[in-house]
Amino acid sequence: MNLRGGDAALDPNRSTRVSGLEKILVVDDDAEIHNLIRHLVASLGCSITPARNAHEAIEWLKRDHFDVVILDLMLPGPNGMEVLHYIYEQELPVEVILLTAYASLESAAEAMRLGAYDYIPKPFDPSALQLVIARALEKQQWKARLAAVYELGQQIGLTLEVSQVAEAVLNATAQVLDCEVRHLWMVDEDRKKIYRLAGEPSPEAMPSSFPLCEGKGIVAAVAHSGSMIYLPDVRKDPRYIPSIEGIRSELAVPLQVGGRVIGVLNVESRQRDAFGPGDRRLLSVLASHAAVAIERARLYEETRQRAEELKALNEIAQVLTSSLDLQEVLTRILAETRKLLGAEAASVLLREPAENLLTFAASVGTASEHLVGKQMPADVGVAGWVLQERKPLLVYNAQSDPRFYDRIDDLTGLTTRALLAVPLIYRTYAVSS
What we know:
Elements: E1 23-27, H1 31-40, E2 47-51, H2 54-63, E3 68-72, H3 80-90, E4 95-100, H4 105-113, E5 118-121, H5 126-156, H6 162-176, E6 181-188, E7 193-200, E8 209-211, H7 218-225, E9 229-231, E10 249-257, E11 260-269, H8 277-322, H9 326-341, E12 345-352, E13 357-365, E14 375-377, H10 381-389, E15 393-395, H11 407-412, E16 419-421, E17 424-426, E18 429-432
Parallel strand pairs: 1-2, 1-3, 3-4, 4-5
Antiparallel strand pairs: 6-7, 6-11, 7-8, 9-10, 10-11, 12-13, 13-14, 15-16, 17-18
Helix pairs in contact: 2-3, 5-6, 5-8, 6-8, 8-9
């Protein structure tokens, strides 16, 4: 007699793996039943606690947590229904498998009302009981996984920091999936790249970013296509880029907002075909939570940035109207600009038309004391290009850009990585950069 009418909600293609941390309470006055069940669940990695009567079972339930209770209805003294009533009244999160040699329609109906997972008559087929136990344990796992997903939604519902959202998503991923690698990648549309926002592990040999190209890695392929990719065996897909030794399977799902891919949630395992259909759905749910929370945090950060920009512009306007000292005005404007952009250093170069030179009129930040008053040719470097082209230029990797003038690094002792330069134009005449 089977009472698992709601079990159809579980994934029919699911694995019967369990986490190895489950506890089972066996309530039966027959020691041989305890030994038999201990043998049956040995391959599932569970711990068995024996109880020989209802009183002993209830005492165990009061002081410990169990995932499954295997309960004989016919016990000396109070019968097994007393234990089932206690579990029902206390709302204990446990699956109950009933064993009895005297099955009846009435007892089955009462057991169903009290939430029993299954009802197996004695004598029973050991392999059938083993399967029922495995499925009951899996149901408990699914409850825990769904609880972790729900908790994630609650946790990041009001989070307004992208880094905190990433940490919470990866923590939830670790709770619901058994994997050795988990990373959250974000799409940088301006640079046509995808970069790692957070994740474990972070091997030095693994690049922190990839070109946003379909043929360069599974993560980039997902970002490019907007569709989930699952590799049961990574060795069979030429797009796979090894991260750590021994990885056999990979699952990557897109983070999408309004049909736009903003990132990718990626997990990898040393086990071949490690992620079943249910795992894929769970990771997709986590990715959906992450996408919404990250986009909300981004919008908040953009709003805060705009407020900071307006504040800085207001303070710059006050500087312009409160002083006629050019050096003071430039220095204070640069200080506000550096603070606003989070830059390491900022400078203003003024053009000397007669000599075709650019002079560092003011500078703030690291090594700025070495720059004020120094000069460079007006037709070289990023500053020279901006002066000639009369338009801004953002360089992400200055050292590899042929326009970069490295003599300035020689003066400061620094190594410039990223560089932003804009022309200062009075009417139609470019006077500085």
